[in-house]
Amino acid sequence: ERIEKISGKRIALKKDYYLKEVVPKLTEEICRGSIREYLKNEGIQSSIIKRKITVSPITREDKIQLDIGEDKEVVLLQSYYYLESGIVFHYSETRCRLRNFQFMEYIQR
User: Fold this and answer.
1) Which of 23, 29, 46, 89 could anchor a disulfide with 19, C-beta 3.0 to 4.6 Å?
2) Do 11 and 100 touch, CB atoms closer than 8 A?
3) How far apart are CA 31 and CA 24, in angstroms?
4) Is residue 108 domain-resident?
């Protein structure tokens, strides 16, 4: 679980979940550092990432963890990371203040 801040304001709450059978050596210490670097060193790479962006009602946890203000909704970004075998090994959920959300996409073919 990580909280992202801009100018001291808590704007996003990110939670990541990993399939234990794929990353059995993942520790709290590794999570405090770079999980991406750990996965690279272990040879674990996603072949497909699916993302879903929705607007979601604010939860009690959002009110506690984020500087919500008067907002009634947050942006919910859900990401599913697949291995080449088709197994989802990583699920990520980010809840972001609506006023701070920005979507930008860059596609190269």
Assistant:
1) 89
2) yes
3) 13
4) no
Q: Are 88 and 79 in contact (CB under 8 A)?
A: no
Q: Encoding tokens for residue 60?
A: 């009690």
Tell me if 49 is assigned to some domain.
yes
Task: Give the model's confidence band at 68: pLDDT under 50 very low, under 70 low, under 90 confident, else very high.
Answer: very high
The CATH number assigned to the domain holding 74 equals 3.40.1410.10
- Residue 105 in domain: no
What count of Cα atoms within 13 Å lies in the side-chain half-sphere of residue 36?
0
Contacts for 66 with CB less than 8 Å, ≥ 6 apart? 3, 10, 11, 12, 13, 74, 95, 97
pTM of the model: 0.85
Domain count, the chain: 1
The torsion region of residue 86 among left (phi > 0), alpha (psi -120 to 50) and beta comes to: left
